[in-house]
Write a structure and sequence with these properties.
CATH class of the largest domain: Mainly Alpha
Number of helices: 29
Number of strands: 15
CATH topology of the largest domain: Tex N-terminal region-like
Strand content: 5-15%
Oligomer: single chain
């Protein structure tokens, strides 16, 4: 198996492209680095394709390693034929390989193994070669009766022979593939409620009597079935056309005409299917569909996470951040324009007594002293009540020039961050709830910089994130964060350890060393200073430098996406026009006169030159969109305030393959089902709405008992 040829065919790539990508990966180049700075070598492949190539490459390498073990094992048993070796050498899927290996795999003690130990193998060998369909096989079976071996009569001898035959049928690769394909293509998932829940209304009620073709079941339904079964509310299995499958297996395995012998063998085939093949393949198919559901759910989670991380930042604004609460009060912090923590106070605005009056005084004091541009409230318990208090009792009475904008924002993951080691290291002297309020405020300034401190799956934009493969989830979400961080770029002189750890090539320890060096020697004055950082060598510098920005320093290119290895190209351009760098940067009219072909050399190709020219036109530009925010209706604070037909504005908090969840300001997100997203057919909800989008919705149904709100974004 030539892995590079397979990759070229799978991804429709030239041999040169495959060679270059594999060489870069084998030399530990990161995906963001390859995608951004090695376009000439890859032919401009983007991150998505590069990750797919890497994953397929890793899969094929693992497959090759497994093949070596399988071949050695079978050869050691003296059973490796040229035909089998050819099948193993040419197979491209792990499932096929394991099917081929199954008959030779060390077995647990089974009925067939026990029968072989009793010496009944020769009896089966005799039966399968008979040509007389009416032969009395009991006469031959009588020869194998041996009480000492545990064969007490001819019936037991025949049962043992049948067990051996059943296992042989079940272990044939072609039989397993036939049944597996039938289950995948024509099987039906069927679920029923457990007896104890038949009369109870639960979130799994729709699965109490549910059917779905295996090949059409959606990822959310698959994961819901598994969760419902795990919680003991429902049970589910795969229905198939058992009779047809058994008949086909019999046709394949029983070659003798109808009679005593064929009846014996067909009974063994039926037993093989019901006792061995069907349970095994059912488990496999459930796992296959689970893995497919995991991949789709994680893909959706990744899309949502990407949109959230790339949400528009408010930028360097001063603000007051509030972590709301009733019993323990609201934790209020003040942050300056750099996100630096200035002051904290707990207030109790919901108490109609002196503490309520003090809450108003505290907020007015903060506004007077710090002139915040925003008051930001986390969207947890008491958020709308707190928002109403701040707007009506505090802000509305202020002069318009002093009036800060009051916003409710997502606090998902803030509690996770506040209890993390990262938060403890940053604010060791502060209470956990105060750290949470700081996180709420900072995520308005720069969602990406703050949310990277939180484990991605805790941010709350996933679908069944606790049910999917956790290792796969962590890896894929980590890749999304890495991609977003490197897409935006990182300020070398202000970035946290967590943010730096996602920069291409930079490991957590080196990120710590960067911050340590910054604290000890002051800000970095140029990118080359990175080589002073302990543990950061030429290889890491190559991978990371282009994604790190240094603002306000002598070399303006250090605050751009132009890689240091390409500075000489910019120098050529400056010399061509006899212009200093500062006159070149941002001068689109001048840069348009450049002919890219004139700058190509052995080190730099046309794709790199084009990227350099585009970056020089708008250096250091933040690729994220302009900051906007939604406004909730002030007369809507709980589900009791809602009514069918009501029109509202909200924020999309989560998008799944069956619709979008929207925060309308009542502590319970509403669901816009995919059928209600638009006045047209919608295949992918992300074609219509993404996490963070402000949307207009209408209420079409309310279930107070289950706290479910159905919404519509359809105009008609």
């Amino acid at each position: 198996m030539n892995i590079k040829q397979i990759l070229g065919k799978d991804f429709n790539l030239r041999a040169e492209q495959v060679d270059n990508v594999i060489n870069l990966l084998e030399n530990d180049a990161t995906i963001p680095f390859i995608a951004r700075y090695r376009k000439d070598a890859t032919g401009g492949l983007d991150e998505i394709v590069l990750r797919d190539i890497r994953d397929r490459y890793d899969y094929l390498k693992e497959l090759e390693t497994r093949k070596v073990t399988v071949l050695q094992t079978i050869e050691g048993l003296g059973k490796l034929t040229e035909e089998l070796k050819e099948k193993i050498d040419t197979c491209l899927e792990k499932t096929v390989l394991e099917d081929l290996y199954l008959p030779y795999k060390p077995k647990k003690r089974s009925r067939a193994v026990a029968a072989m130990e009793k010496g009944l193998g020769p009896l089966l060998d005799w039966i399968v070669v008979q040509t007389n369909p009416l032969l009395n096989i009991e006469d031959e079976a009588a020869k194998y009766v041996d009480a000492e071996k545990g064969v007490n009569d001819c019936r037991e001898a025949l049962m043992g022979a049948a067990d051996i035959f059943a296992e042989c049928v079940a272990e044939k690769a072609e039989n397993r593939e036939y049944v597996r394909s039938a289950f995948l293509e024509n099987g039906v998932f069927v679920s029923k409620a457990k007896k104890a829940f038949l009369e109870k209304k639960t979130k799994f009620s729709m699965y109490y009597d549910y059917r779905s073709p295996v090949n059409k079941i959606s990822s959310h339904n698959m994961l819901a079935l598994r969760r419902g079964a795990k919680e003991g509310i429902i049970g589910f299995e795969i229905e198939a056309d058992d009779e047809s499958l058994i008949n086909e297996l019999s046709r394949r395995e029983v070659k003798i005409a109808e009679g005593t012998v064929s009846g014996f063998l067909k009974d063994a085939v039926k037993d093989s299917y019901e006792r061995l093949i069907k349970p095994s393949i059912s488990t496999e198919v459930r796992l296959i569909k689970k893995q497919e559901a995991d991949q789709e759910a994680i893909l959706i989670f990744g899309k949502n996470l990407q949109k959230l991380l790339l949400s528009s930042p408010a930028g360097q604004v001063s603000l007051v951040a509030v972590d709301p609460g009733f019993r323990t009060g609201c934790k209020v912090v003040v942050l300056d324009t750099t996100g630096k923590f200035l002051e904290y106070q707990a207030i109790f605005p919901h108490e109609r007594n002196k503490r309520g009056e003090d809450a108003k005084k505290t907020l007015l004091y903060f506004i007077e002293k710090y002139s915040p541009q925003f008051i930001v409230i986390g969207n947890g318990t008491a958020s709308r009540e707190t928002e109403r208090f701040i707007k009506q009792d505090v802000v509305d009475g202020l002069d318009e020039k002093k009036r800060p904008v009051v916003l409710v924002v997502s606090e998902a993951g803030a509690s996770v961050y506040s209890a993390s080691q990262s938060a403890i290291n940053e604010f060791p002297e502060l209470d956990i709830t105060v750290r949470g309020a700081i996180s709420i405020g900072r995520r308005l300034m720069d969602p990406l910089a703050e949310l990277v401190k939180i484990e991605p799956k805790s941010i709350g934009v996933g679908q069944y994130q606790h049910d999917v493969d956790q290792k796969f989830l962590k890896n894929k979400l980590g890749e999304i964060v890495e991609s977003c961080v490197n897409y935006v770029g990182v300020d070398l002189n202000s970035a946290s350890v967590e943010l730096l750890s996602y920069v291409s090539g930079i490991k957590p320890k080196i990120a710590e060393n960067i911050v340590l060096r910054r604290n000890e020697k002051g800000p970095f004055l140029k990118r080359d200073n990175l080589l002073d950082v302990a543990g950061l060598g030429e290889k890491t510098f190559l991978q990371s430098a282009g994604f790190l920005r240094i603002k306000g320093m002598e070399n303006l290119l250090d605050d751009s996406a132009v890689h240091p290895e390409s500075y000489y190209v910019v120098k050529k351009i400056a010399e061509k026009f006899n212009a200093p760098l500062k006159d070149l940067i941002g001068n689109a009219a001048l840069l348009e006169k450049i002919e890219p072909a004139d700058l190509i050399d052995e080190q730099t190709g046309v794709s790199t030159v084009m990227d350099i020219l585009e970056e020089l036109k708008k250096p250091g530009r933040d690729p994220r969109s302009t900051f906007t925010y939604a406004k909730f209706r002030e007369d809507v604070n709980s589900i009791d305030d809602l009514s069918v037909g009501m029109a509202l504005q909200g924020v999309a908090t989560n998008v799944t393959n069956f619709g979008a969840f929207v925060d309308i300001g009542v502590h319970q997100d509403g669901l816009v089902h995919i059928s209600q997203l638009a006045d047209r057919f919608v295949k992918d909800p992300t074609d219509v709405v993404n996490v963070g989008d402000t949307v207009n919705v209408k209420i079409i149904d309310i279930d107070v008992e289950l706290k479910r709100i159905a919404l519509s974004m359809r105009v008609k």
